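Exercise 3.2. Students should predict the tertiary structure of the chain below and write it as structure tokens, then compare their answer with the key that follows.

Predict this chain's 3D structure.
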Amino acid sequence: MGLLSGSQRLGAAALLLAASSLLSRLMGLIRDKIISWQFGASHEADMYFAAFVVPDIINYLLAGGFMSITMIPLLARAFQKDGNDAWRLFSAIFGWITAASCLLTLAGEIWALPLASLVAPGFDDGQLRRLAFFMRLILPGQIFFLSGASFTALLFLRRQFAVPALSPLVYNGCIILFGLLLPLAAANPAAFGMTGYCIGVGIGAFLGAFLLPLAVALKGGLAMRFNFWHRGIKKFLIIALPLMLGQTVVMLDEQFLRVFGSLLPEGNVSLLNYGRRIAQVPVSLMGQAIAVASYPFLVKLLAENRSDEFSATLNRALAAGLAIVIPLSLWMMAAARPLLGLIFEGGRFSAADAAACAPLAQIMLAPALAWIIYMVIARAFYAHEDTITPALTGTAVTVLCIPCYYWLAIPNGSTGIAAVSTLSICAYVAWLCLIWLKRHGPAAFSGLLNLCARVFAASLAPAACAWLICVYLPSPVAAPLAGHCLRLGISLAAFTLLTLPLAWLFCPELLGAFWKMLNRKRFRTIA
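Answer key:
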């Protein structure tokens, strides 16, 4: 089958989405590199990053990021019973989501200025007006994200993963393109600032998140009915409402960095944002890909009452994510300074900015393990049509951590904010795992503690060696970029050469699995 129409199996789907996550993350880093070069850790960059708070919250309120999770189980059962009725259900959900996103976006456009003062309490009046302007440009993109998520859910149901893999690439590409080109046509490029990037957000959302999935859905036989009512809407709301109303610490983590960072001196919002971008690389690379690819299969197994295979599939997904993210995050923590120097340093982003950002990235890399577990285990709850448990526990942790940001984090600056972020994520994931163990038993976590211990044993010494290289290896003062590349290259080579024999000693099954993958042997799939 063609690239845009084939149905991938679990292993191939995970690899495809991992490759997409890698490319998307790379494009995102290129985008942030351009922004850091042009604007550094400045108020203009702070306002750009803060402008996403309200649009993102609208997305959370309508469960846009969870559209596939809420729709796939309902549509899977509906299509098994009656195809025509399933299309009516799909159309009703699409209609309500689109109408609600339009209304909330309109409200955001009208009240952008007072909303700006809420999300950035540390900005002055001029900065708040500029922030409101950016927000008004970015807000319409949520209409395309939310309505397009319905088509993406349909593609996931069909196990067509190529278009969802391409969508973020188109989105990031548009932001970069318009951010670079539009100022060239402006009468005053300096005053134009980051306006082009904001415009690129809306256009990228339209092309990547809406038009591309719509085109492929139409090609595969989309049969819209344009109705607003179906008896399945009640079931959809029962599943979706906890996700809409439960603002978990995971969803709000990035927004907390922006909101509370605005109370610190100029540039801290940007530094926290750049540090989090680096910290999310291993999470996005493996966690998102494995979680998204495994979800349709988990739903299918539960629908067929194959609970043992469900637990085994969940266990394999967790093991695969943890085995890769542990060594990757340890090396990135060791190499944080040259990584930030290579990616962001230059232009208006100084060496001092990179040095200040490095410890923030290291702190936020620490919970990479927890992020991977959350992404997979949360979807296991959703496959059981239980959206209440993750929402309630996450909201409870959110309520508890807000005073910690005010009283503990802000007095300690950006490092305090990063530390509270890390602790809150870990606390939430630990609570969620305890609930799963109590309700469903330990099968999904079987052997994972032992696996993590062995992977840590194989990775800690190489990571320490990589850190020593990054800290003490001399580099040419006149060519800092070459120095960062030299440190990264030598530290990565040393880390790899030391990790391979230790991995063979402590966890040889992992090397065997990767060797099979490289030899293109068949992936284990669900029959």
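Discussion points: Residues 302 and 368 are 28 Å apart (CA to CA). The chain has a mean pLDDT of 85.
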